[in-house]
Amino acid sequence: MENTHKLLVIVGSVREGRFGPTVGSWVAEQARSHGGFEVDVKDLAEFDIPLSLPAAPPKYAGDDYPRPAGMAALTSALEAADAFVVVTPEYNHSYPASLKAAIDWHFTQWTAKPVAFVSYGGAAGGRHAVLHLENVLTELHAVTIRDGLAFPNYFHTWQDDRPLDPEAPVYAKTLLDQLAWWAGALRSARRAAPYPA
Fold it and tell me: Which residues are paired to 89 by β-bridges?
């Protein structure tokens, strides 16, 4: 449907015992209930994402960029998406290396598309990680969404795979409303003219 956007929820942590899949599942549930999205979830732990990169950056190599075969499904999902929600923890005031590697293996897949953030962590709720991600994804010509979701001290504030805060779904709807608006606007713009990256 023209008013439905392809949303990719990315679970960014690959750490043993991680909480990311729980948050990612809840976010995907909120997005499906929203009605404005066709939702896909990709967990970076399921993909081969090396830290070493080819000499030529993906911006210039285009379709010939030599990505590992084990990354193909992730690349296809990034390419097909109209919008993204990145689910990230905070490690040492930033985001996981797995997420940085996944971002760096791609370029045009992010360009002129909106990205929202859902973070979790200790007292800061992952906000430091999001601040760093906003800078990185802006460099790739993505559009970052102002209203995100942060879950401080998630180990105390979630129960039965759901946040205890009754306002969390309300905040999620605000994020998804903004994401849907930007997804539609940027999809129309990409169709009207190539983005001048």
Answer: 120
The runs of H, that is alpha helices, within 40-126 are: 58-61, 72-80, 97-104
- Summarize pLDDT for 91-134 with one digit per residue, the tens: 999 999 999 999 999 999 999 999 999 999 999 999 999 999 99
Taking alpha carbons only, the member of 75, 69, 66, 57 closest to residue 139 is 57
Q: What is the pLDDT of residues 69-78, one digit of tens each?
A: 999 999 999 9
Question: pTM of the full predicted structure?
Answer: 0.96
79 alpha-carbon distance from chain centroid: 13
- What one-character DSSP code corresponds to residue 6? E
Contact assessment for residue 8 and residue 84, using Cβ atoms and an 8 Å cutoff: yes
User: Greatest CA span in the chain, whole angstroms?
Assistant: 49
Contact 68, 48 (CB under 8 A): yes
Least Cα distance to 103 among 127, 128, 80, 84 occurs for: 84
Question: What is the residue type of 180?
Answer: A
Q: Is the dihedral of CA 148, 154, 159, 161 positive or negative?
A: positive
Rg for the chain, CA atoms, rounded: 16
